[in-house]
C-alpha cells in the first residue's frame, strides 16, 4: 500500500517492483540544466537517507544503464512564473523507470513522487511498478511563514523549503515585515532593519541564498511587505512615514495596531519606491505581496492634514483612501515590472486588474473577488497556527463554501491557496511541529483532484509521510521531544510523553489571553504538544468500533491496556511535576487524565459484564467528565467525549 | 545535585541560587576580543535553548547590571598553542555571578561550566551558588574524527566541535587522508582530491570555516596527513609517489594496505613539501600529524631501487628507512614553522626531539616514548569506535598501566590524550551516536583530577549531560530513532526501540567479518543501536540489589514489569520483522530476548515463593541462556549474565 501525498491525478499499479540499491543510477536526456543536475544529486542523497545505502556519488549514467531516466523536453524561462507546466509521467517496471516532463518543474515534482514510492519490503528497498500521469489542480500552492512575531532563522526557512518541495508546494510566502519586526536588511534605509528587528533579520546574502535554494526546488518566493498598516517596525527608524507623530517602538503585543503610513505625502511614495526598487533586486518573482490587512483608519482620521487631503481629492472614506494608496503602490510596482498580491481588504473597484486577492476574512471574499474579475488565492481556511485538525483543512476546498456558487469562468480565477503559519505562538523551536504534517494536507488539497476526500486514508498516508518528512530536516517530531526533556530538567520523558501524546493545545484560550507578548517564553507543555493527537484519533476510532460491536475482545483488550497506561501515568509523573516549575500547571491535567481513564475502565468492565452502573456513581462520573472538558494549562484532553460515549453505552442503574 | 562534566578541580556550594530569566545579561571587563563577544552571543543562545526563554539580543550590559560578569586579564597569542592557560574562577551567589580568567580560553571553559549549572527548579530556572576554581589536568584533550573510511560532511564536523567545546575538549584531530579517501582540496595537486575522494572532500573554504569555527570555541585543529603508508588515495592521481608501480584505486576494504610512498626519491619530498606548504596556509596550528602507522614495508622490500638506496645509505631495515623518511619530513615541516605528531610506530632514536608520539598500539609505547624523552598523547585506550562501555575509558588513565611506573618528570611529558573515532563502521548518520556521550567521559578523564573515579556518579551525570548535548546539534539520540523508523518502513518504532535499547553491538564480530567494504550499507539494527545500553546497566544494578535483598518488593515489582515488557515484546515486533528485509536477521534475537526474560520471571517467581526449580527445567534454562550469549546479527543481549545470576540465586531442585 503506497503512501503518496499529494495523490497523483492518474495512477496504475501492477505487482512488479523495481529494486533500489547502490546500483541506482540516474540518466538525463532532453534539456538538462544545472538545477536538474542538482536535483539528481539531492535525489541520490535522499534515497541514501531513506534506505541507509550510499548511492554512487556520480549519478550521471549512460542512458541505457540508468535505473531512472529523466527526460525534460524544453527550457523554462529564467524566472519561475505562476503558470509553469508541472505535469509529468512516471513509468516504473521491474527493470527500470522513466520520468518524463515538458519542463524542469514537472521533473522536480516527479522526482518527489519517485522518492515517496520507495519502501522497504521483505526482500529489500523497492519502488512498485506504476504508471503515473500527474499534474496539479492549482498552479499556486503556497506556505506563508510569518517571521516577524518570532524570529525564524535562515536554516529553519531552508529546511521548511525542503519539506515543501517534498510535497510539491511551490510558493514560499515570506511575511517579512509587520508591527513586531522588520526582518530584512535594507542598504537604502538601514534603520528599517537596524532599529526594527532587535538585530534579528535576514541579511541580503541570506535572502539571495534562500531565493536560490527555493528556485532549485521549483519554489517561488513571494515577499510580503505589509502596508500601509502593520508598519510600526518601519516607523521606529523612519517615523516621518507615519500618519501620527512618533516616536514608535517595535510592538511586543499581538493583535492589530494603529501605526499606518501617511498616504497623502509624496515622501511616503518616494520612500516606498526606493525601498521596493532595492527589494526587487533580491526577489525575481513577478509578484510582491503588499499586505493591506487590518488598516485601522484611526491615525488617518486623527490627522487634519490627511482629512484635508481626502476632502480636496474627493476621497470619501478611509477605505477609499487605502484604495488610493494601493493605486499609487501599484504604479510603483508596475514601473519595477511587478504585480501585486494583497489580503482581501484591498479588494476595491479601483484595484488594478492583474492584482491577486488572498482571502483572510473568509471564503466569501474570494468569491466576491472572483465575481469582480480578480484572481484569488484561498488563505483563510488554511491557517495552520490556529491548530485545527488536519481533517478541517482537508475538507476546505478553494472552490468550496461561497466559491461553490461561482461560474466555471469565475472559479478559474482562483489560482490556488496557501497554508499560513503566523507566529504569535510559535518559535524557531516548535514552528516545524505547527506546520508539519498538517501542511501536507493542504498540499494535497491544492494538487490533487477535488474528489480525493477519504479522511481515513488521508490520515493513514499522512502518518507515514510525516515520519519521512524528518529526513528533509524539519524537526516536527524530534523538536517537541527536546522540549519535553527540558520540562523534566533532562530526566526521563516517558511519562511526560504519554501525557503530551494524548493532549491537544487549546488554541482559543491562548489567543484570548492578552497577557502574551513577544517576550513571553513559549516553553510550556502546550508548546511541546503537537496540534493534533494521533493517539487520541486512533483511540476515538477504537471506541466507535467497540461500541458498534462490544463483543470484539481484541478491541476490548487494546482499550483496557491503553486506559490503564493513562490511569497509571499520573503516578509516574508526579515526581517530575513536583520538581519542575514548568510542570506545576499540568498536575491537575495529568490527574484528570488518570480519572478519565478510570471512568473508561469502569465503563468497559460494566459493559463486558452486562452490569449497570449505579446512579450515584454515574453522576460522579458525569461531573468528573464535565470538569475534564475544561482546558487546563491551555491544554485539553481530546478523548473525554469518547469516554463519555463509553459511559453512555453502559446500562443505567438506579 | 549538579551534573557537571568534567568535574571542576575545586568547588564549594551553598544553598543559594541565582535565577536565570530573560533579564540575564552579560558584562565584559578586562581584555575583550571578538571571539569572547561571539562566545557571549552563543551563551545567550544556549541559555535560550536550555530554558526556552529568549534572552535579550543585546547581551552587553553595564558592568553593574550584569547577571554574569566575565573578566579576562590579558590578550592571547594569535594562534592557540598546546600550553594555554585555561583556568578560571566562577563565583555565583543569589545576586549575580562573576567569571574571571587570565585568558580567553579560561573564560570559554568557564562559560560551559556556567551553562551546565543551569537547572529547572520548582520555582524556575536557576544556577546554584558556587565557587569554582578550575583548571585542566592535561592541556591536550582531543577528539580524532576519521573522515576517510566514510565521508563526514562539514556540518557534522561543526556540530561535533560544538559538543566538544561544551565538555572542554580542545583539539580536533582531523584524520583527512588515508587509503580510503583523500578528503581535502589541494589547488597545487588537484588530482589528490579529484581522484582520491569520489568527489567527497572539504573545499578549502570548508576548511577555513571549520578552523575558524573551532578557534572561536578555543579548539585547535590538528590535521593528519598519514604518511608514508595509508596513502592509496594519494596514488590514484599521483602514482609516481608510490614505491610500487600503479595504477592505484581508492581502497574500499578495511585493514592495512601496502601502498607506501617512495622515501628514496627526491620528487617525493618535493611533492610533500609543496603540498604541506599549501596545507599550512589552512591550518595555523604548530603541529601537523603525519600518521606513520602500519607501514607494511612490503613495497619497499619489493623495490630494487629502494633496496639499493638502503644499502648505499647504510639503512639497515625498513624501520630505519621510515625514520629516514620522518627526518626528511620533519625538515620540511620545520622550514614551514611546524612540528610533528605521529603514531607510536614513528618512535625512533633519530626522531627530532620536539615531536609528539600518540599511542596506538598500547600504553607501553607512551611509557617508552616518555622514557626516551618524547612528549606523548594517550590514544590507544580511548578508541570510541571499538564501542566499549564508558566505564572502560573512564578507568583508563594517561598515567596508568605502563605509564604508572614513570618518574614524575617522565609523566610530565604526557601532555594529554585523544578519543578516537575511526569510521569503518560509522557514517554521517550514526557517527554522533558512536562519539557521544562516551567522549564526555574521556573529556572528564583528561580535565579532572585523577582521583575522580566514582563510576556510578559518572553514569548519573553522563545521562543528564548526554540529554543536553543534543542542544549542541549532535544527533546521538535523535539520529538512531530515525534509523529505527527506516527499519520498520516508517511504522511505529515502539517495539523496535524496546528491543534496541536492551541490545549492544558486538563490535568484535563485525571487525572480524572481512566482507565489509566502504560500500556496505550500514543500515541495520546494529547500526542504530547505541554502544552501551543504559537500560541494561540499570537492570544489572537492580538485579545485584535484589539478589542482595530478595525481600525488597518494590525492586521485585520493577524487575517483573521490566521482564514482562521484554517477554511480550517479540509478539509486538513479529509483524515488522516479517515485512522488513532489514529486520529478518533480528527475529531470532528478539525471540531470544523474550525467552531470556521468561527465565528471569520464572526465577523471580521461584525466589519469591522460596520454591526450587526442577533440574530438567534448570538445564533447559541453562541451555537457552548459553545460546543467548552468542551474538546474532552482530548484536548481543547484555543482560544474559544478570538473568544467569538470578537463576543461580534460586534453590536447586532435583
Which secondary structure elements does this structure contain, and how are they paired or packed?
The structure is a homodimer of 654-residue chains.
Chain A: E1 10-19, E2 26-30, H1 34-51, E3 68-72, E4 88-92, E5 97-101, H2 104-117, E6 119-121, E7 124-134, E8 140-146, H3 154-166, E9 171-178, E10 181-182, H4 191-196, H5 204-216, E11 220-225, H6 232-237, H7 266-279, E12 287-289, H8 298-301, H9 304-313, H10 318-335, E13 339-343, E14 356-358, H11 363-371, E15 375-378, H12 390-394, H13 408-411, E16 414-421, H14 431-435, H15 438-447, H16 455-469, H17 478-487, H18 494-501, E17 504-505, H19 507-512, H20 525-528, H21 534-548, H22 553-579, H23 587-609, H24 615-628, E18 635-636, H25 640-649
Parallel strand pairs in A: 2-3, 3-5, 8-9, 8-16, 9-11, 12-13, 13-14, 14-15, 15-16
Antiparallel strand pairs in A: 1-7, 4-5, 4-7, 6-7, 9-10, 17-18
What does this structure look like?
Two copies of one chain form a homodimer. Chain A has 654 residues and is α/β, with parallel strands linked by helices. Among the domains of chain A are: 10-134, Chitobiase/beta-hexosaminidase domain 2-like (Chitobiase, domain 2, 2-Layer Sandwich), CATH 3.30.379.10; 478-653, no CATH class. In chain A, the strands form three sheets. In chain A, strands 8, 9, 10, 11, 12, 13, 14, 15 and 16 form a nine-stranded mixed β-sheet that branches. In chain A, strands 1, 2, 3, 4, 5, 6 and 7 form a seven-stranded mixed β-sheet that branches. In chain A, helix 3 packs parallel to helix 5 (204-216) and helix 22 (553-579) runs antiparallel to helix 23. The relative contact order of chain A is 0.08. At the A-B interface, helix 1, strand 6, helix 16 and helix 17 of A face helix 1, strand 6, helix 16 and helix 17 of B.
Amino acid at each position: 500500500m503506497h503512501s503518496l501525498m499529494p495523490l497523483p491525478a492518474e495512477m496504475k499499479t501492477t505487482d512488479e517492483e523495481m529494486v533500489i540499491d547502490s546500483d541506482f543510477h540516474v540518466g538525463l536526456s532532453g534539456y538538462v540544466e544545472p538545477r536538474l543536475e542538482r536535483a539528481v544529486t539531492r535525489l541520490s542523497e535522499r534515497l541514501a537517507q531513506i534506505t541507509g545505502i550510499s548511492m554512487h556519488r556520480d549519478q550521471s549514467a549512460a542512458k541505457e544503464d540508468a535505473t531512472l531516466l529523466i527526460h525534460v523536453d524544453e527550457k523554462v524561462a529564467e524566472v519561475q512564473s505562476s503558470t509553469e507546466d508541472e505535469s509529468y509521467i512516471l513509468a516504473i517496471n521491474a527493470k527500470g523507470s522513466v520520468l518524463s516532463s515538458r519542463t524542469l518543474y514537472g521533473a522536480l515534482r516527479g522526482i518527489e513522487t519517485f522518492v515517496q514510492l520507495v519502501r522497504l519490503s521483505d526482500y529489500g528497498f523497492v519502488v512498485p511498478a506504476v504508471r503515473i500521469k500527474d499534474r496539479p489542480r492549482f498552479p499556486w500552492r503556497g506556505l506563508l511563514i510569518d517571521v516577524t512575531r518570532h524570529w525564524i532563522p535562515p536554516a529553519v526557512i531552508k529546511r521548511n523549503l525542503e519539506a515543501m518541495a517534498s510535497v510539491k508546494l511551490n510558493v514560499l510566502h515570506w511575511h517579512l515585515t509587520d508591527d513586531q519586526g522588520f526582518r530584512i536588511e535594507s542598504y537604502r534605509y538601514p534603520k528599517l532593519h537596524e532599529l526594527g528587528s532587535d538585530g534579528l533579520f535576514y541579511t541580503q546574502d541570506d535572502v539571495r541564498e534562500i531565493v536560490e535554494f527555493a528556485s532549485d526546488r521549483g519554489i517561488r518566493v513571494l515577499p510580503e511587505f505589509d502596508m500601509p498598516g502593520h508598519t510600526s517596525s518601519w516607523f521606529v527608524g523612519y517615523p516621518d512615514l507615519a500618519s501620527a507623530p512618533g516616536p514608535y517602538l517595535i510592538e511586543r503585543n499581538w493583535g492589530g495596531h494603529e501605526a499606518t503610513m501617511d498616504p497623502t505625502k509624496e515622501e511616503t511614495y518616494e520612500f516606498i519606491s526606493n525601498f521596493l526598487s532595492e527589494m526587487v533586486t533580491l526577489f525575481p518573482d513577478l509578484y510582491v505581496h503588499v499586505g493591506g490587512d487590518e488598516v485601522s483608519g484611526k491615525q488617518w482620521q486623527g490627522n487634519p492634514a490627511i482629512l484635508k487631503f481626502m476632502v480636496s481629492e474627493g476621497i470619501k472614506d478611509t477605505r477609499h483612501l487605502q484604495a488610493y494608496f494601493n493605486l499609487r503602490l501599484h504604479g510603483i510596482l508596475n514601473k519595477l515590472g511587478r504585480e501585486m498580491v494583497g489580503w482581501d481588504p484591498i479588494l476595491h473597484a479601483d484595484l488594478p486588474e492583474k492584482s491577486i486577492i488572498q482571502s483572510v476574512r473568509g471564503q466569501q471574499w474570494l468569491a466576491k473577488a472572483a465575481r469582480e474579475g480578480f484572481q484569488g488565492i484561498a488563505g483563510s481556511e488554511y491557517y495552520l497556527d490556529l491548530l485545527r485538525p488536519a481533517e478541517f483543512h482537508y475538507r476546505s476546498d478553494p472552490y468550496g463554501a461561497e466559491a461553490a456558487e461561482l461560474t466555471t469562468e469565475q472559479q478559474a480565477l482562483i489560482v490556488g491557496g496557501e497554508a499560513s503559519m503566523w507566529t504569535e505562538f510559535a518559535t524557531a523551536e516548535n514552528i516545524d511541529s505547527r506546520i508539519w504534517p498538517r501542511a501536507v494536507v493542504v498540499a494535497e488539497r491544492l494538487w490533487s483532484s477535488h474528489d480525493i476526500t477519504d479522511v481515513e486514508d488521508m490520515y493513514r498516508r499522512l502518518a507515514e509521510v510525516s515520519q519521512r518528512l524528518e529526513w528533509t530536516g524539519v524537526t516536527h517530531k524530534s523538536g517537541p521531544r527536546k522540549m519535553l526533556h527540558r520540562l523534566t530538567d533532562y530526566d526521563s520523558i516517558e511519562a511526560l510523553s504519554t501525557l503530551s501524546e494524548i493532549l491537544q493545545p487549546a488554541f482559543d484560550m491562548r489567543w484570548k489571553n492578552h497577557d502574551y507578548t513577544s517576550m513571553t517564553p513559549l516553553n510550556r507543555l502546550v508548546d511541546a504538544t503537537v496540534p493534533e493527537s494521533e493517539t487520541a484519533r486512533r483511540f476515538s476510532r477504537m471506541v466507535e468500533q467497540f461500541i458498534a460491536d462490544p463483543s470484539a475482545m481484541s478491541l476490548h483488550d487494546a482499550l483496557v491496556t491503553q486506559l490503564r497506561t493513562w490511569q497509571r501515568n499520573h503516578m509516574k509523573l508526579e515526581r517530575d511535576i513536583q520538581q519542575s516549575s514548568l510542570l506545576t500547571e499540568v498536575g491537575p491535567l495529568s490527574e484528570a487524565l488518570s480519572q478519565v481513564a478510570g471512568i473508561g475502565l469502569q465503563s468497559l468492565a460494566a459493559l463486558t459484564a452486562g452490569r449497570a452502573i449505579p446512579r450515584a456513581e454515574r453522576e460522579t462520573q458525569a461531573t468528573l467528565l464535565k470538569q475534564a472538558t475544561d482546558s487546563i494549562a491551555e491544554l485539553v484532553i481530546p478523548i473525554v467525549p469518547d469516554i463519555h460515549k463509553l459511559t453512555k453505552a453502559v446500562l443505567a442503574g438506579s
